[in-house]
Amino acid sequence: MSDQSGLPLEQFIQALTSQLDRAQNTLALKARAGLPLTFAVKDLTLDLRTHIEMVDSAVRIRPAAPGEVEASTIHLALTTITRPMIEENTMSLAAASDEPSLKQVLGKDMTDEEQRRLEWAGIHTVSQFRDMQKHGGEQAIERVVDIPVNRLRAALARASEPMITHVTRESFSPDDGNGANLLRIRGHNLLQDNEPNVRIGNEQVAVMQASPRELLVAALPHHTEGTLSVETAPGVVGQKEFRLPPRAKAAEETT
Amino acid sequence: MRRPLWQTLVDVVGAVMPPEDSGLRVKDAHIDLPLEVSLRQTGSDLEFFGDVPGWRWQTIFDEKRGRLKLMIGEGEAQ
Would the pLDDT of A32 be above 50? Predict the structure, then answer.
């Protein structure tokens, strides 16, 4: 390996598994090319002479260099799995695929190192973070990931703030100059215990429907651009600048 | 020059397939080989190179070898 400081173990495993995928794809291609019989790799075991190091909380791996007699042997056993097995093991992540990652939500509130420790504990998404806090308790997370409770609490509060991703005008929205201008607001955490307070600029607008992922509001005809604010609890506000397209393009989406 | 591991695997699998007109049928094979590995970073991609040793005897200047154990069998890849 050219990098003397080693590589994160997960990168190493990814590089290895992508080689196996490529080998399997090539063998499958041979089968489709008309060979009467072909083989597949069923199991593969690698014994590698390496050095394993811990840098912060990341495990790094470096193949043993010439003359290094004190190297460890890492034993990797890989086997083929079927699509149902993959789906069975990725269902929880797939269900959460459209929610923002911890990094997107927490941003600068937590260091990369702290986020890595949360991922290490199996917390990749905000909902996992919330569930873990609810069921495992803050003290348990603190012990495992070594992040103080007050910082975890602040991070969770930040992760629970409303986030607006899209503002669109409803295509059936009336345009008689006086009627409501129905806007659909999509995002995350848009509803908590009570109906949210929605404002465009300084004007409050009526909420027609509300769910954690979507709001339907009756805006006034002049509300075609400005700052949209969604307050789900006192002081818990998410904001987004928006501009709607002209009426002829009402169905188009703004971001 | 070491080959990427996938090429080595495909070649090893191909090597145990009997010629079509031989009348032989290999149902499965267990292969145990010495392996020299290296990693190369190209942009954001990390490629894993793994090949059998190019030389039978190992000198103190060679990187430590690993081992590759492979079980292959009839059938299409998953």
Answer: yes
Residues of A with CB under 8 A from a CB of B: 1-3, 7, 11-12, 14-16, 18-20, 22-28, 31, 36-49, 63-68, 71, 80-83
Q: Is B58 left (phi over 0), alpha (psi -120 to 50) or beta?
A: beta
Rounded Cα gap, residues A26 and A46, in angstroms: 21
Cα gap B4→B14, rounded to integer Å = 16
> Residue A17 is inside which H or E element, if any?
helix A9-32
Chain centroid to CA B13: 8
Confidence of residue A90 (pLDDT cuts 50, 70, 90): low
Give chain A positions within 8 Å (CB) of B34: none
Q: How far apart are CA A198 and CA A149, in angstroms?
A: 32
Q: Residue A22: name the closest of B9, B45, B32, B33 by CA.
A: B9
Residue reference for tokens 């090949």: B51
Q: Across the strands, what pairs with B46?
A: B41
This prediction has a pTM of 0.55
Rounded to a whole number of angstroms, the distance from the CA of B12 to the nearest CA of chain A is: 10
Instruction: Give me the residue label for tokens 């014994």.
Output: A47
CA distance A135 to chain B (A): 38
Contacts of B28 in chain A (CB under 8 A): 42
Whole-complex ipTM: 0.84
Q: Which helix (H) or strand (E) holds A102?
A: helix A102-106
List the strands of the sheet with A225-233, edge to edge.
Answer: A163-169, A181-188, A214-219, A203-211, A197-200, A225-233, A236-243
Task: Provide the pairing of β-strand A203-211 with A214-219.
Answer: antiparallel
pLDDT in tens, A2-19: 445 678 888 888 888 888
Q: Where are the domains of chain B?
A: 5-16+27-70
pLDDT at position A183 is 92
Q: Which residues pair with A54 in a beta bridge?
A: A59
Flag if A25 and B77 touch (Cβ within 8 Å).
Answer: yes
